[in-house]
Design a protein that fits this description.
heterodimer; A: two-stranded antiparallel ribbon; 2 strands; about 70% helix; B: mainly alpha
Chain lengths: ~450, ~500
């Protein structure tokens, strides 16, 4: 391996090593101080960012930096390739992930000072950075899926960060359900790639597929991308995800995670180019999401949700750009949107504080400025749209009524059937445990 | 002073692995003191003997020895993990008896001994003084499976006059009736549809850890690997039926788990759904699918022992009325139990970075190749299981801190060591899966060679086309199968 290959490996692996090391130390009862944790986080991501800068410099002269670490596992002819690759498409995303993770780490050192979950947040931040860097630097769809799933589970655990409250925990479960359902598309898509094309590698481009195969593959990947990017009809999870701490909302739903779906489609663009139907569907989903996002965002009552829908609107437009084949415009759009939204999310808590101070200073509410575009619509339509926006396009209702509800009803029915066929008589009563054997509860037994 | 050579002979080691737990069971039943210590020593002896057997076994032919090591190691872990109230003279002998029977079933190459081990393994669950279930389904299922296998083996031995499994390979002893009875035995013992409900009933109404060990013997899958596939290769067109039953079980139970609020039943559903995938993989007849199934066997066994162990610890500490209908907030009291529970559960449903991810990847890849519908349904079942698991985790561990008690213990040191070992196994196994996967990939021969045995024995029949296409897809596999065929036919286990 040359120096740049070493750098690429370091950039991806370093956050994972930090996560593993500190998680193990915690399991062995050692808790690092906040200062140590934030210093190590700062150092790791500074080094990673410097490493990505070096890779950018290198890629200026060559097309990509690629390193093969062998196979993760191999059986017969099938092997799971461990290939990392930094090319012109992945390098902006790598830079974004390394830089923003470091910034979020520094911001959170103050923001979460003395928070009971301080260490947990930083561990999950490192795990998330590892997952996202792995997904962006993956040299194959197989490895991309591994990073993708790590990002998903980290996202869910951070939504439930304030686990003493019921809402974050329930919302984390909802998001997890959506993620898992949509990830089926990615998994099956990858297996279909292996089956039909004989490879899921990103290095050599896609072998030409004929018939309905490219369409099916695109639709499977689109399912995964739509779930991760909260596109219609899966947009309902995004406001629920705002239950997490603000720094995690910034990096997940303002910057990295929300754009991972777009990255997947950018990677699959050679396939999209072969399928007009899939491209049209990408455009349709993107347009629906953009319209949905802008309408619902206008009726959102809190700053983070408004920002989430603003992000969503832009991601919808990015999907349209990808569907139209405007690849580099989409990349530029992602970079701009991600950095702006991160800044806005991080600014949101203090901005609210500033507004309150300004209101106090002027002795009342500030006069609204500008005009709202929806005012050009008839009053009846405005009212209808407002109702529609308040219920977030009824997407959650539709999902719960037509998917989750029936599934739970079937489950309840099966449970009833099993119970009605179980006689109430028992063979023998459960053994009772003498108090003297049980021992005191605080001893653990 | 060097050890005498006879100690390392296979029959001695196998006999030690099987007899040590049985002797210890008798000792504990009579002496009734120091039950945990005696149990640990016996399980450790079995584990050491099994390790030596694995070490001695030729490359690619250590499947049963590995399973012996896995089961004895996990029994040792269970002995250490058992709460004090469970580690008494009534429970430990039952577990030891089960350990000896299971190891005998794994190691034997004789039909009659296998039948004996099968029956002996369920005796603790029939006896009122040990682990008899309060519900009728487990009793009926275990007895039915024993009756079916007894009849099947009766047909096979009566028809051929031979009881050695290696001598009956590819001969379809006992004909269709024996084959059908073996399938029935596998379905009942494994908890495959339509006999799936007994598993949750057994877990719900019986002692948790012994029942977990009973289920994790995976006797149903063992029957497929040891008898159904090797002895009846010409009925391979019927194997997909078993796969369809298995995937139907995985889906059915995954749906059933979505609304379940009893943690015991819910975990039982998850374990059953995930372990049903093993049968699909075994039947896929691809190197990836079979390897995935064998690795998944390991993952399911290790994870579920850890998960049920943690659940039992929670029951003992916080009361047996745990429910997933509300948030209990136990993570505040037991953060390490919570983290271990999360990692093991996510490993069970295939989180990247754990061994479960590798096994799921191979399983889906293998089954999608031969049965696209099964391959498509597997990730759906796994996704539903993941949601159910996360619901259980969040309800048990997350939520407002409970204040009804004063001091509650997190994992005690002895528990911590065992749980840390299990967690490290699934995580390190996931990060560096090649030793596990390669070991099982070479063991694919044991199953796949059997599938192909018919073709090897009957060159020129229509089945050879099948074999050629398989070899074309997996040249590595075909080579190893040919190599194995030359050195094969060695008798296994207590027959040696």
């Amino acid at each position: 391996m040359n120096a740049f290959q070493d750098i690429l490996v370091f950039v991806v692996v370093a956050p994972g090593v930090i996560f593993g090391l500190f998680a193990l130390l915690w399991l062995l009862d050692w808790v690092p101080s906040e200062r140590l944790m934030s210093s190590i986080t700062g150092g790791t991501f500074s080094a990673s960012t410097a490493g990505v800068a070096a890779l950018i410099w290198k890629i200026g002269s060559t097309s990509n930096v690629s390193v093969s670490l062998g196979s993760w596992f191999a059986v017969g002819n099938y092997h799971f390739p461990l290939v990392l690759m930094a090319d012109r498409l992945s390098i902006p995303f790598l830079a974004l992930a390394a830089l923003l993770s470091g910034l979020i780490g520094q911001f959170s050192a103050t923001y979460l000072h003395r928070e009971s979950g301080f260490l947990r947040f930083f561990l999950l931040l490192h795990l998330f950075a590892f997952g996202s860097l792995l997904a962006f630097a993956a040299g194959s769809f197989d490895l991309l899926a591994a990073g993708w799933e790590i990002v998903g589970i980290t996202s869910v655990l951070l939504i439930g960060f304030f686990h003493q409250r019921r809402a974050p925990v329930e919302n984390a479960l909802y998001v997890f359900g959506i993620y898992r359902a949509c990830d089926i598309g990615l998994l099956v898509g990858i297996f279909a790639m292996h089956h039909w094309a004989g490879t899921a590698s990103l290095a050599g481009g896609f072998p030409t597929l004929t018939g309905a195969r490219p369409v099916i593959l695109c639709l499977l990947l689109l399912l995964a991308a739509s779930g991760k990017a909260a596109q219609v009809p899966f947009s309902g999870w995004l406001p629920r995800a705002m239950e997490g701490p603000t720094p995690s909302s910034a990096i997940f739903y303002g910057a990295i995670s929300i754009h991972a779906g777009a990255y997947l489609l950018l990677r699959a663009q050679p396939l999209l180019a072969e399928s007009r139907l899939a491209s049209a569907l990408v455009i349709l989903i993107g347009a629906s999401t953009a319209i949905h996002g802008t309408i619902v965002g206008r009726a959102s009552a809190d700053a983070k949700t408004s920002l989430a829908y603003a992000t969503l609107t832009q991601v919808g437009i990015i999907f349209i750009e990808i569907g139209l084949g405007w690849r580099w415009l989409a990349v530029a759009h992602i970079l701009g949107n991600a950095t702006l939204r991160t800044m806005q999310y991080l600014r949101a808590p203090s901005m609210l504080h500033d507004y309150h101070q300004m209101h106090s200073a002027v002795g009342g509410e500030l006069s609204p400025t500008g005009t709202q575009i929806e005012e050009i619509l008839p009053a009846g339509v405005q009212l209808w749209l407002y109702r529609w926006a308040l219920d977030r396009g009824y997407l959650d209702t539709i999902l719960e009524r037509w998917v989750i509800g029936p599934l739970l009803q079937v489950s309840a029915y099966l449970s009833r059937v099993e119970r009605t066929r179980t006689p109430s008589t028992t063979v023998r009563p459960r053994r009772t445990v003498p108090v003297s054997v049980a021992g005191p509860a605080q001893r653990g037994d | 002073m060097s050890m005498p050579g006879w100690i390392f002979r296979t029959p001695v080691l196998t006999g030690t692995a099987v007899a040590a737990p049985w002797l210890a069971a008798i000792v504990v039943s009579i002496y009734r003191r120091q039950a945990r210590v005696v149990g640990c020593i016996a399980a450790l002896l079995s584990a050491i003997a099994s390790t030596t057997l694995v070490w001695k076994a030729p490359q690619g032919a250590s499947l049963y020895e590995t399973l012996m090591l896995l089961f004895s190691g996990l029994t040792f872990g269970t002995m250490v993990l058992l709460p004090r109230r469970d580690a008494e003279a009534g429970t430990i002998p039952g577990i030891l008896f089960l350990l000896g029977s299971t190891l005998l079933a794994y190691s034997t190459g004789n039909l009659l001994v296998l039948l004996g081990a099968w029956v002996l393994s369920i005796i603790p669950f029939l006896s009122a003084s040990w682990f008899r279930s309060r519900k009728w389904r487990p009793l009926v299922a275990l007895l039915s499976s024993s009756l079916a296998i007894a009849l099947a083996i009766g047909f096979m031995v009566a028809g051929t006059g031979v009881s050695s499994i290696s001598h009956l390979k590819g001969q379809s002893p006992g004909g269709g009736a024996a084959f059908a009875l073996l399938i029935v035995a596998a379905i009942f013992r494994k908890g495959v549809i339509p006999a799936q409900t007994w598993v949750a009933d057994a877990v719900d109404s019986g002692p948790l850890m012994p029942t977990t060990l009973l289920l994790n013997g995976h006797f149903g899958a063992l029957l497929v690997v040891k008898l159904i596939v090797p002895l009846f290769p010409e009925t391979d067109h019927l194997f997909p039926v078993l796969s369809y039953f298995a995937i139907a079980t995985a889906i059915y139970v995954a749906i059933r788990a979505l609304r379940e609020n009893s943690p015991r039943r819910l975990l039982a559903f998850l374990a059953l759904s995930q372990s049903a995938c093993i049968l699909s993989g075994l039947e896929s007849r691809t190197a990836e699918g079979i390897t995935g199934a064998l690795v998944h066997w390991v993952v399911v066994t290790v994870s579920t022992v850890g998960l049920f162990g943690i659940l039992r610890l929670l029951e003992v500490r916080f009361g047996e009325n745990l429910s997933a209908s509300k948030h209990l907030g136990l993570a505040e009291h037991a953060p390490r139990l919570a983290v271990s529970f999360a990692i093991l559960g996510l490993a069970l449903v295939g989180l990247p970075g754990t061994l479960g991810f590798c096994s799921e990847d191979l399983l889906i890849h293998g089954t999608l190749t031969t049965h696209p519908l099964t391959g498509l349904l597997l990730p759906i079942a796994t996704a539903m299981n993941a949601v159910s698991f996360f619901r259980l985790f969040s309800r048990l561990f997350l939520g407002r801190r409970r204040t009804g008690f004063t001091v509650m213990a997190d994992a005690l040191p002895r528990e911590r060591w065992i749980l840390a070992s299990i967690v490290l196994f699934v995580v390190l196994g996931g990060l560096f899966p090649n030793p596990t996967v390669i070991e099982h990939s070479s063991e694919v021969e044991v199953v796949d060679e059997a599938i192909r045995a018919f073709d090897n024995l009957n060159r020129g029949t229509g089945h050879s086309d099948n074999n050629s296409s398989m070899n074309a897809r997996h040249p590595h596999l075909s080579t190893t199968i040919r190599d194995a065929a030359e050195v094969e036919q060695r008798p296994t286990g207590v027959d040696r």
